[in-house]
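Build the 3D complex.
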Amino acid sequence: MASDSPTDQPQPLPEVDLKTFIAQMPKAELHVHLEGCLTPVLARSLASRNNLPPPSSLSHLEPSHPEAGYAFNDLTSFLQIYYPNLAVLVTAEDFSDLALSYLRTAHAQNVKHVELFFDPQAHTSRGIPFPTVVRGYRHGVITAQRTLGISASLIMCFLRDHSAEYAMSTLMESLPFKDSIIGVGLDSDERDNPPSKFASVFQRAAREGYLLTMHCDIDQPNILTHIGQAINEIQVDRIDHGTNIIESPELVDTIKTRGIGLTCCPISNSVVTADFKGREIVSLLRQGVKVTINSDDPAYFRGYVNENLLKLAEGTDVTKKELIQLQRNAFMISWISSWRRSHFLHMLDEYEQKALSLVEERRPLANGI
Ligand code: ADE
Ligand code: ZN
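Done.
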């Protein structure tokens, strides 16, 4: 029998530390807010280009220390600086530059595909026309695709602390841009703003062909009711965060049966709650739920996808094989064609074979020999 030629088998990689293992893994990111990618450096530069003062959230920062971050300590104080900072985004070029700056970083982290949230109402409410926002973001996405080879889609989120009528009118405004937007989501302050408030908006969005996701944020009041509504009333395709589902074995069974995935964000969890929820994320993974790891608002929480994976890996007993499974989940629940899904899953299989074959070979035998 002919032996395999060297090109038939993936060549093993040298065994590497966890950080390198994560960095080299092909990845998808499904939960990142474009507005949350506005770094202090970019905010300052856009303000200057638009002849605006720098946002007041930057006043405590030294311009000569661009690595310094925004100051906040929970979801409320985060949102209180998040929205005012957006005043520096004025022209389509600004939105394009914001998308491109995130996609460059994601590409440098070996992210192959991204599904990007954006909040049109955070801009239309301050007088920026809807088409300016979408055309700008779309330009950034297309430029990144062409120049870097990273693929990206846009998900339009409604602000849940505004009215359902405003969400519906935003949905109507989006219809001429349907080709550029793959799905709709729901974000911002969840307290007293349950999924059911937006049932008719999501029903119409589904009829228009949009895929559906929504935030069920960590440890919110009535969170299991919200998760139940998202699954049963709204019939979402995915849930953003949603980690509290672990408290309901019945809901866990339902999402497993329906293949609904969760987009989890360990670093943001650790800032907005007392815990990064690593134990819950790994337990859900081991129960067969399609959990994924993402960055949420990387410019604010100060971690992109690699740092989020590292936080999980260092804070739990998750294995390298399971870290690969988390990425497999991301490609499985991503909104891409089945052809591209197979392509990325094959890439991950190859990575697993190359990166883990040495680890397997070197594992000591159970009897110590
Ligand atoms: N909008 C941007 N980031 C968010 C988060 N972590 N929770 C709710 N709304 C958001
Ligand atoms: Zn989010």
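The first strand starts at residue 27 and ends at 33.
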